[in-house]
Design goal:
This protein is α/β, with parallel strands linked by helices and 286 residues long. It is built from seven helices and twelve strands. The strands form three sheets. A six-stranded mixed sheet has the order 6-7-8-3-9-10, sandwiched between helices. Strands 2-1-4-5 form a four-stranded antiparallel sheet, covered by helices on one side. The chain has a two-stranded antiparallel ribbon with strand order 11-12. The longest helix is centred in the middle third of the chain and has 18 residues.
């Protein structure tokens, strides 16, 4: 199990980001504005918002692949100025190399690691077991399911023992049943590893199920609307009235002021028939 200290805290201070945009009156488009977020070591943060609010852009800044921004982003005492082995990422598409086996794809995460061959073999075996893929080490991506491939991607992101794991819609391309199973798997892995995790998602229920806190963002420009704590024990029960109250209060942020009360206090949960709601680029299941 990984250990974390206060030096692993992630500090995002008044971060703003613009892109050149020919159609904008000023010639640039403000994508993020004054993002201020302190993430404690070992914390699981869910970031939710409609398309275009800058969620994935924020992950790119934390990952260090885009350093052209205003403000300050640091991991511990070190400002983030480039990609590093202390940060891993898992994308919506697993992005496995089709010519490599499960074992070899996980090994890609150790390519630049300063470890011996024996240490790398041990870490790969440990992470194959962590994501429950024993017996599939020599399988190629075409020989395993989409959910299994995404587990490989998670193992690859974790195998180098990063201080922070970034997750950009990691289950967005999966069917509902596989998605639900992998949410539980990710929760189990996080509880075991205690690595800081930042999850970007459109799914409010997923955000509440996994997160210690849920960061609600709004677009044009992307900024934090509010941060909601999720003070519920793990493992979480999706039918728990307390869970439903938190989820419904967050959903209300995307449904317009007419659906919200005078305060952020969630209304009592009511039984609902199973249905889908699609609104403003968001898709929720309950």
């Amino acid at each position: 199990m990984a250990t974390t200290t206060a030096t692993d805290d992630l500090h995002i201070h008044v971060a703003s980001k613009q892109f050149d945009h020919a159609q904008a009156a000023s010639g640039s488009l403000q994508v993020l504005q004054d993002i201020d977020l302190q993430v404690r070591a070992g914390e699981f943060i869910s970031i939710v918002g409609a398309s275009g609010c800058g969620k994935s852009t924020l992950l790119r800044l934390v990952l260090g692949i885009d350093v052209d921004y205003e403000g300050h982003i640091a991991l511990g005492d070190e400002r983030i100025t480039a990609p590093g082995l202390d940060r891993g990422i898992v994308f919506q598409d697993h992005r496995l190399f089709p010519w490599l086996t499960v074992e070899q794809n996980i090994a890609v995460g150790l390519r630049n690691a300063d470890r011996s061959a024996a240490e790398k073999r041990e870490l790969i075996a440990e992470h194959v077991a962590l994501v429950g893929l024993q017996g599939f080490e020599q399988s190629f991506p075409r020989q395993i399911s989409g959910g299994m491939a995404q587990r490989v991607a998670i193992a690859r992101g974790l195998v180098n023992r990063p201080r922070v794991l970034l997750l950009d819609e990691p289950f967005g391309a999966l069917d509902a049943l596989t998605r639900t199973r992998l949410q539980g798997e990710l929760q189990r892995i996080w509880q075991h590893e205690r690595i800081t995790m930042l999850l970007v998602t459109h799914d409010v229920e997923e955000a509440v199920f996994l997160g210690d806190r849920v960061v609600v963002m709004q677009p044009h420009p992307g900024r934090i609307r509010r941060i909601a704590p999720v003070d519920l024990p793990h493992p979480r029960n999706r039918s728990d009235p307390a869970f439903l109250r938190i989820r419904d209060a967050l959903l209300a942020d995307f449904l317009g002021p007419e659906r919200r009360g005078p305060s952020d206090v969630p209304p009592p949960a009511e039984p609902r028939a199973a249905h889908w709601l699609a609104h403003g680029g968001l898709r929720f299941a309950w």
